[in-house]
Amino acid sequence: GNEYYYSKNNCIISKLEPTKLVAGCNTSVIPNFITTICNHAFYRCAGLTSITIPDSVTSIGEWAFVDYTSLTGVKFENINGWRVKTVSYPTATTGTAVEIKDDTSAENLQFNANLLTNTYKNYYWARFDQ
Predict the structure, then answer these.
(1) Are strands 36-37 and 20-24 parallel, antiparallel or unpaired?
(2) What sections of 6-117 are H helices per DSSP?
(3) Residues 86, 92: Cα–Cα separation, whole Å
(4) Cα-trace Rg, the chain
(5) Which pTM does this prediction carry?
(6) Pairing between strand 50-53 and 5-8?
(7) Residues 28, 65: contact at Cβ < 8 Å?
(8) What is the tens place of the pLDDT at every residue in 58-96?
(9) Max Cα-Cα span within the chain
């Protein structure tokens, strides 16, 4: 087997940092122990139509969800405390607050997808407990 990465739920995860999701695909389900979705993790996964960001995730790298035409639904299990900034400083609590929609209506899931794939696609995302 590979000494650096392993696969779970169709996600590639770092063995050196086992809470980091390195890459995903069209059928990925993010495990609930992942805290970080790395830069470019879902880059050009054109067949991905929806994804749930588990409560365990506290950071999403730049360009993690880019070049999508089919991502129409993103559900965040925890919508509180998300901020975005153009530089990756995971310990800093500054940045622009992001209002994420909570309910699972198609309109709100599309709104969340648009935040990740368009509005803040080249930003580092971090969630801070409030």
Answers:
(1) parallel
(2) 106-114
(3) 12
(4) 14
(5) 0.91
(6) unpaired
(7) no
(8) 999 999 988 766 888 999 999 999 999 877 655 556 788
(9) 42
